[in-house]
Amino acid sequence: MPVEREDEMTFAEQLKQMYACHEAVHWVGDKTLREAWTTCERSDWMAWLTQRLGLDSRKAAADMAERVWHLVEPESQLACAWVIDCARRGADDDEMAAAWDAAGAAAWDAAGAAAGAAAGAAAGAAAWDAAGDAAWAAAGAAAWDAAGAAERAAQANIMRDHFMWQQIDKAIRERTE
Questions:
Q1: H/E segment holding residue 45
Q2: Secondary structure class of 108 (helix, strand, coil)
Q3: Averaged pLDDT for residues 167-171
Q4: Angle between helices 43-52 and 149-162 (to 10 degrees)
Q5: Residues 50-94: tens digit of each pLDDT
Q6: 29, 72, 73, 157: most buried by Cβ count inside 10 Å?
Q7: H or E segment at 172?
Q8: Is 148 exposed, middle or buried (0-12, 13-18, 19+ CB in 10 A)?
Q9: DSSP code, position 3
Q10: Cα 53 from chain centre
Q11: Taking CA 38 as the corner, what is the angle to CA 32 and CA 39, rounded to the nearest 5 degrees?
């Protein structure tokens, strides 16, 4: 386990340096990375951090999208399934962009906020670059609004299943070197 030195930045300071939202920085407060990662129930924050650190979170996003599959309207399922498939198999940039566009269109066409949230979560599975940050944020916000506490906790656990806090710590250290 890494030992924190007095001259090292706190996790909250590191988040500020990465331009994390005020709400996340405030929630972290004086928590260590380990404490924050193991207790956070905001999968959208966790996904944002993994992406900011350059970690490939598409498979985690696909798992999250599958958890809300029951909310996807039948007319949106094909596009959402394509995005999930692309995320799982590591499709090239062109196919990922096409799938993301299709899922985005499906989200707009879907009736009801829940269907939009599910399609948005599926669209988030395609996100991994600068343009994808917005998709992740939208997917996370929609899922956050549509889901209850149990679902939010399950989504955060998916992130923890895919990324241990030590991986996040290593990526942060590499970023600052």
A1: helix 43-52
A2: helix
A3: 96
A4: 30
A5: 989 999 888 888 888 788 777 777 777 888 888 888 888 888 888
A6: 72
A7: helix 165-176
A8: exposed
A9: P
A10: 12
A11: 90
pLDDT at 43: 86
Calculate the CA dihedral of residues 85, 91, 96, 98 and round it to 10 degrees. Answer: -90
Higher pLDDT, 56 or 28: 28
Mark out the alpha helices in 68-148 (DSSP H runs): 77-89, 93-109, 113-124, 130-146
Question: Dihedral of the CA atoms 28, 34, 35, 36 (nearest 10)?
Answer: 30
Is residue 173 within 8 A of residue 60, CB to CB? The reply is no
Read off the tokens for 136: 């992740």
Whether the Cβ atoms of residue 80 and residue 65 lie closer than 8 Å to each other: yes
CA–CA dist 6, 44 (Å, integer): 30
The residue-averaged pLDDT of 30-45 equals 94
* Per-residue confidence (pLDDT) for residue 78, from 0 to 100: 83
Q: Is the dihedral of CA 29, 34, 35, 39 positive or negative?
A: positive
For 104-107, the CB contacts below 8 A with 24+ separation are 104/135, 105/79, 106/73, 106/75, 106/76, 106/79, 106/80, 107/76
Cα–Cα distance for residue pair 104/39, rounded to 1 Å: 31
**pTM of the shown model:** 0.72
Q: What is the pLDDT of residues 90-117, one digit of tens each?
A: 888 888 788 777 777 766 555 444 445 5
